[in-house]
Every structure is written in C-alpha cells, then in structure tokens.
C-alpha cells in the first residue's frame, strides 16, 4: 500500500460515514424516497440568500474575483453580530473567515495543537476524530451523560491527561440537540483551569457552535467563550441558511484571551490558513456576509416538525431525546440494532441515519430539514417498522 499512515487512519475513523454516504447514492433522484439523513435542503433556497449572492455577482472592480483572505466587511459584520449575541467585545481582528465550520475546526486544531497531542471530543458527537487523525493528533472520547446526553464534566475530567491540548464542546449538540447550561459550562471551565495548572500546560477549549441560532422553546444559549478565556469559537452559516454547499464560516478568538496571546494567534492564523490550502470562503460568499447575518431558516417551522415527530413517535413507543436546538431528532432504535432498524426503514423508502455513524449502534438520528409532506409520509412507516422490529 502506498497510502500514508494518516490517510489510512483518517479513512478508518470516518469509514461508517463514508459507507453510509455512498449507500445513499442509490436513491438519488427518486421521488418516492423520503430522505431524513443529513441536514440538506429539500425546498428551494431562502430568497434572501439568493438575493445576497445576486447582489454581489456583478463585479465592481477588476479584482472582484481575485485571491481573497478574510475580507474586512465580513469580519466587521461577524464581530458586530457576536457582540450583540454573546455580549463579548469581539473585534474584527478576532475573526477569520473560513470554508464552513469544517475549515474553522481544522484551522483551530492546527493553531494550538501539535502532532501527538490529545483532543477530548464528545461521544456521541460530530466527526472530529477523522480530522484529528489526518492531522496526526489523538482523539480521546468523553461520553455525554447517559440518558440525558447532557455535558458530563466528570467524564471530560477523566479523559484529560498531560497530553491533552484541546477539549471540544458542541452546543447545541449534533446529534442529540442538547443545549448545555451555563452552570455546567462553568464547572467545565473550572476543571480545565485546574488541569492546565496541574499539568503545566494550557488546555484550550474549542466551542463548536454552528447551530447556535437554531434553538427551540425560548431556550437560551451560553458560549464557553463567556466563561473560559482560552476559547476558540467556530461557526457555519450553512446551518442557519440551510445551504451547506455554500461553504461559509468563521473561527473567532475569545476577546477574553490575554492580549499578548491573542496577538500571537492573530499573527499566526493567516500564514497557517495559507499553508493549509488557502482555506478562505469564495469572494461572493464573503461579500454577502453583511446581508446574511440576519437571514435564517424558519425555526418555528422546524420546531413544529419536531413537535409533530416527537408526539407521533413517543405514542408509538419510541424513546427520544427532545432536541432543544439543531434540526435533528435523536432516539433509541427499536430492537436495539440501529443498522437493522434503518435497513428495515430503507426497504420502505424511508432513510434515517444510524447511530453507528456517531459510535452509538443502538441509536438513530432523523433530520427535520425534510419538508412537512416528507415527514408525514415517513411517520406511518416509522410507526409500523418500529412496532415490527421492537
């Protein structure tokens, strides 16, 4: 084999996702299929998104489509939005525009961690491990609280070693939809401070916040950046705009980071981002940022679909975690075998994501970005299949 060790390790880490993703190609273009797998759009894009892109399509200068790094109007708009939303004094220089949250996470890992460093990631959680393996770093999983899937601070504390460099927190969380409360995050900040002092090495916190603006029932949001100065924040516009193919996000430095350290990080980010493959968003998307800061999918409609699905499925005997945010519904697979359960659904034309993708073979995830019509077609199948395999 001519593959590098890191390519092989990354491939192994993401194999469940790759296999499932490739299996979905068989249903491309089939109108009879109900796709509840990934957070993709199933209706035409938001008019305000299209308008923002169209407004910037016509070049206004010779260099309109020249090489771009982070553009000042985009940084200004993001910093203003963060100041209003989180109540922290973010400056434009704290903001680096990236190709979605993927790009921001990859940048954050390499900004403060080295080869062989350990990064504590939540389980179940998003696909951090393959990114870390590709960077020759070591993912260390810390389980969320069993049953509630709340942040388990004690589990994080147990996962920390002298090699720990970063702890990842994802709130609102994918796949569970949990939003972590301020008290739990304050407890985590205390644990990280104590562990940093004990091991003589600062532990950073990466706050993964792409669903920050998608919350239900008036649930509030606390960013770890408010409580732990040594925090990096990543964000993606692909969720709130429901346009994941338009790669737009950012990495933000908490303004509470000591000034000298923040200046060092600011100076390091640009050359690192260039070295990682010029990981900036396309010019058009950056031009659109000031207009897009106030654009959102219909969160009330998402909540309505959540309530409809939770009501029907709970009546059918499903054990579910009611999401406080994101656009996912997380539950226990009837019969305890997610692969068998999702295969039985697929035979009936309904596709959901097995929990094996998240290291949880007894769970499944539904994406609520499907249309209401698609959801109504899926619910009777979910009820019938659940009764048969449960």
UniProtKB/TrEMBL annotation:
Family annotation (SUPFAM superfamilies): PLP-dependent transferases
Family affiliation: Belongs to the class-I pyridoxal-phosphate-dependent aminotransferase family.
Upper lineage: Bacteria, Bacillati, Actinomycetota, Actinomycetes, Micrococcales
Domain Aminotransferase class I/classII large: residue ranges: 32-379
Enzyme class, spelled out: transferase
A Gene Ontology molecular function term of the record: pyridoxal phosphate binding
Keyword field contains Cytoplasm: no
Domain of life of the organism encoding this protein: Bacteria
CDD domains: AAT_like
Protein name per its UniProtKB record: Aminotransferase
Cofactor: pyridoxal 5'-phosphate
Keywords annotated in UniProt: Aminotransferase, Transferase
Enzyme Commission number(s): 2.6.1.-
């Amino acid at each position: 084999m001519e593959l590098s060790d890191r390519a092989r390790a990354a491939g192994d880490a993401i194999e469940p996702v790759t296999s499932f993703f490739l299996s979905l190609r068989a249903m491309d273009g089939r109108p009879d299929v109900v796709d509840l797998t990934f957070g993709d759009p199933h209706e035409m894009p938001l008019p305000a998104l299209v308008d923002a892109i169209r407004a910037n399509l016509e070049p206004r200068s010779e260099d309109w489509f020249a090489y771009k790094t982070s553009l000042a109007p985009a940084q200004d708009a993001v910093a203003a939005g963060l100041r209003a939303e989180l109540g922290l004094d973010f400056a434009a220089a704290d903001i680096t525009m990236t190709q979605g949250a993927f790009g921001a996470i990859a940048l954050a890992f390499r900004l403060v961690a080295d080869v062989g460093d350990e990064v504590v990631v939540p389980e179940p959680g998003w696909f951090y491990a393959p990114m870390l393996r590709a960077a020759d770093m070591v993912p260390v999983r810390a389980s969320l609280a069993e049953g509630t899937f709340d942040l388990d601070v004690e589990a994080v504390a147990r996962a920390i070693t002298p090699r720990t460099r970063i702890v990842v927190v994802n709130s609102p969380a994918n796949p569970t939809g949990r939003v972590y409360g301020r008290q739990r995050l304050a407890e985590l900040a205390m644990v990280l401070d104590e562990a940093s002092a004990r091991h003589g090495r600062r532990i950073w916190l990466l706050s993964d916040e792409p669903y920050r603006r998608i919350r239900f029932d008036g649930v509030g949001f606390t960013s770890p950046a408010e409580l732990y100065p040594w925090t990096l924040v990543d964000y993606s516009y692909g969720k709130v705009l429901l346009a994941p193919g338009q790669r737009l996000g950012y990495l933000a430095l908490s303004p509470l980071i000591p000034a000298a350290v923040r200046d060092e990080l600011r100076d390091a980010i640009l050359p690192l981002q260039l070295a990682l493959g010029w990981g900036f968003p396309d010019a058009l998307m950056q031009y659109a940022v000031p207009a897009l800061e106030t654009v959102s999918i219909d969160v009330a409609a998402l909540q309505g679909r959540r309530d409809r699905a939770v009501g029907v499925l709970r009546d059918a005997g499903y054990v579910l975690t009611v999401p406080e945010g994101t656009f996912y519904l997380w539950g226990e697979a009837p019969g305890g075998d997610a692969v068998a359960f999702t295969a039985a659904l697929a035979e009936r034309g309904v596709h959901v994501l097995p929990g094996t993708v998240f290291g949880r073979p007894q769970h499944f995830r539904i994406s609520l970005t499907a249309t209401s019509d698609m959801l109504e077609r899926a619910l009777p199948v979910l009820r019938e299949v659940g009764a048969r395999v449960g």
